[in-house]
Amino acid sequence: xxxxxxxxxxxxxxxxxxxxxxxxxxxxxxxxxxxxxxxxxxxxxxxxxxxxxxxxxxxxxxxxxxxxxxxxxxxxxxxxxxxxxxxxxxxxxxxxxxxxxxxxxxxxxxxxxxxxxxxxxxxxxxxxxxxxxxxxxxxxxxxxxxxxxxxxxxxxxxxxxxxxxxxxxxxxxxxxxxxxxxxxxxxxxxxxxxxxxxxxxxxxxxxxxxxxxxxxxxxxxxxxxxxxxxxxxxxxxxxxxxxxxxxxxxxxxxxxxxxxxxxxxxxxxxxxxxxxxxxxxxxxxxxxxxxxxxxxxxxxxxxxxxxxxxxxxxxxxxxxxxxxxxxxxxxxxxxxxxxxxxxxxxxxxxxxxxxxxxxxxxxxxxxxxxxxxxxxxxxxxxxxxxxxxxxxxxxxxxxxxxxxxxxxxxxxxxxxxxxxxxxxxxxxxxxxxxxxxxxxxxxxxxxxxxxxxxxxxxxxxxxxxxxxxxxxxxxxxxxxxxxxxxxxxxxxxxxxxxxxxxxxxxxxxxxxxxxxxxxxxxxxxxxxxxxxxxxxxxxxxxxxxxxxxxxxxxxxxxxxxxxxxxxxxxxxxxxxxxxxxxxx
Length: 584
What we know:
By secondary structure, the chain is α/β, with parallel strands linked by helices. The protein is about 40% helix and about 15% strand.
């Protein structure tokens, strides 16, 4: 029996539901992660092994498995059984909730790893959709052939319960249109040839999500080459870092939503959401639809009521947009619909009618690092009865982060000052108090300009901005919402010394990678989430006379700290009796 059948056919007892409602998880087992010696998998429920499914098709439908094997061999692979994509597919096919925030993304030279994981969740999504379709088609045929005898069985039995409230079963959330293009292109490639005799509206899709290149039907080789050439040409013309070009060099639209429908012989892009099997969207695209449904009574988002597989890829990039949108979208999933939408009520699975669909939804969250917001979503909104599978660096045991200090190219004296905080709730106030009492007085009394204040969050940006105003400080702003004309003016003022302080945010740097001239003293109010950001900011001290950098941290910043200074140094800095640490 397939894991699909076992997972959806399970009947939850009242005791199981009560336990899930408490949302208290105990990670009671762990196992080494595949191909990642410094990582381990931690999980709840039954222990998972990478060879749990020993069948020749690895839990896939035969035609999907055959096509995937052929694609793997065509790309030069020779050991599919031990491949990263096969191993991660086995994890997806267990139908557990998965948090994997140690993935090296394609834009940071992680093309192979990123592609392997993408292949795995795409194949899992296709397998789920095709098995759902086969079950419904099989039961439709039985009903048509034995209408009278089957009618009673539908009323009394469970073998014909194969529907959700609506058709869409898979939702993939992505941050940018260029990434959506990459996923859909690969989705089409991994769909067996017999199921994609025709791909409807592909020209429109490539025009809207890509560089406007029309692809052929033969695995989209032309599109791949032209998109690559386009990205390469952009990289040559720009002074931006290579990771910036790889991520933002193509279509960086963050407002999109597309339905995909699979028939026996065709793939239909831009399908009506209610007739689609899969929806691929950005958080902003989804939240816009939810907002419209709240305002206009004739609109609804009931097509989110029956999502059984949710994938959130590049969660770290999404966290640089607005993570609260993701929370709002996930809260909207698996609710009871407002209308019937033509569904045969007699064939809806009982756990849908009981309002328990969220306990059957699998959530897969993928990113390159973990944030408190991502962790909170996984802990509080992912309540799959099969349990959780969490990919964690062995932060408390044997994991060793190398850190990012080696990428600082200048001989900069980097001073880390630790402040004390009683709890994570009070840490923001403790940081602000330390800055205003210990750091700012030195700035205020100094005649030196060229002081950059770097903050990680917009909340901190607003707080420091208001404080500087209250002190009548000479400062300029460069945040994610600053107008372009104001940005240009601020950079000139700062460089010419007309403004003493520049307040700069991590998000503004992530999206623009400005090279700020005139920095003499760098003060990192809060460490960046993205470790790559740290050396880029510090290296902007080039040309400075003093080259000083001061970074504030507390014991609650350990995850960020160890990504920057390394695990060993971070543990020592958090536990030491000293409060000041120097790196050169």
